[in-house]
Q: What sequence folds into this?
DNA sequence: GCGACAG
DNA sequence: ATCTTGTCGC
C-alpha cells in the first residue's frame, strides 16, 4: 500500500545502468530533514549462493522506542548481477516489491550500503531515495570509495570520508572499540542527520537496529523459518 | 597496465 | 552476499 515513483525501467545493461546513474544524480537533494521523523525502516536482501532467487524484506520501527511496528517480505528474482557501483540495480527492484506491501509509509529509510559515498555519488540509498521520494541514507559495513582517518575508539566518534577532495560520508563508531560503519546521505537528508539517526538506532550492536532486524527477517525467510508477511 | 571493488 | 567451528581477546 506504500507507494513510490517508478522513475525508470530496471531492465538495463551495466552500461545503461551507469548512464542512468549519471542522469539521475542531479535530482538528489542533500539537505536537513523537513520534518522530525517518528518511524524508520531498514531494508535487506538475502539469497543462496549461485541462485537467482532473492528474499527481500523491510522492517519498520518507531524511532523513540525502537519497537518493530511492521514487517514485509517478498521472494523474488534478481536479473542483475552484483557489480561494485551498481548494487542498486540488483537490490532495489525486489525491495520496491516489499515496500509496496507496507501499510505504513516510513518517515526515513536506512539502507545496507552507501548513498553519496559512491563513485558517482548515487549509491543504493540515493537511488532508492529518488523512487521513494523521502529521506533515505546508507549505513554500510565496508567502504566502496573514499579515505578516512580512524575515528576515536569510543562510540559516537566519527571522521569524514573523502573522495576526490569532497566529503562523501562518515566512518562512524557505533560501539566502543569495534570497527566503524560507513554512513552517507541518500536523498532529502544531510550527513549530520544521518549520523544522528544511526546513533539513535542503537541496540547494542555494531549494526543499527533497522538493518539488523531486516537482515534477520530475510534470513529467516530464506531458511523457510518465516512466512511472507 | 595494475589493483580496488557496497551486497 | 554465502559457505561454517572454534577460538582469541576484552
A:
Amino acid at each position: 500500500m506504500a507507494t513510490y515513483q517508478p522513475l525508470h525501467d530496471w531492465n538495463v545493461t551495466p552500461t545503461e545502468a551507469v548512464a542512468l546513474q549519471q542522469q539521475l544524480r542531479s535530482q538528489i537533494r542533500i539537505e536537513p530533514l523537513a520534518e522530525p521523523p517518528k518511524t524508520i525502516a531498514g531494508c535487506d536482501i538475502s539469497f543462496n549462493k549461485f541462485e537467482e532467487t532473492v528474499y527481500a524484506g523491510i522492517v519498520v520501527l518507531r524511532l523513540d522506542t525502537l519497537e518493530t511496528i511492521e514487517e514485509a517480505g517478498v521472494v523474488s528474482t534478481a536479473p542483475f548481477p552484483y557489480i561494485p557501483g551498481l548494487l542498486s540495480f540488483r537490490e532495489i527492484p525486489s525491495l520496491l516489491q516489499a515496500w509496496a506491501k507496507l501499510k505504513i509509509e516510513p518517515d526515513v529509510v536506512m539502507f545496507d550500503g552507501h548513498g553519496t559515498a559512491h563513485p558517482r555519488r548515487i549509491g543504493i540509498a540515493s537511488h532508492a531515495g529518488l523512487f521513494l521520494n523521502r529521506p533515505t541514507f546508507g549505513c554500510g559495513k565496508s567502504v566502496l570509495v573514499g579515505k578516512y582517518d580512524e575515528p576515536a575508539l569510543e562510540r559516537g566518534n566519527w571522521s569524514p570520508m573523502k573522495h576526490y577532495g569532497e566529503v562523501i560520508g562518515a566512518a562512524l563508531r557505533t560501539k566502543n572499540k569495534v570497527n566503524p560503519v560507513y554512513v552517507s546521505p541518500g536523498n532529502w537528508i544531510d550527513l549530520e542527520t544521518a549520523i544522528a539517526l544511526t546513533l539513535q538506532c542503537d541496540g547494542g550492536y555494531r549494526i543499527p537496529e533497522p538493518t539488523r532486524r531486516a537482515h534477520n527477517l530475510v534470513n529467516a525467510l530464506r531458511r523457510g523459518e518465516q512466512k511472507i508477511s
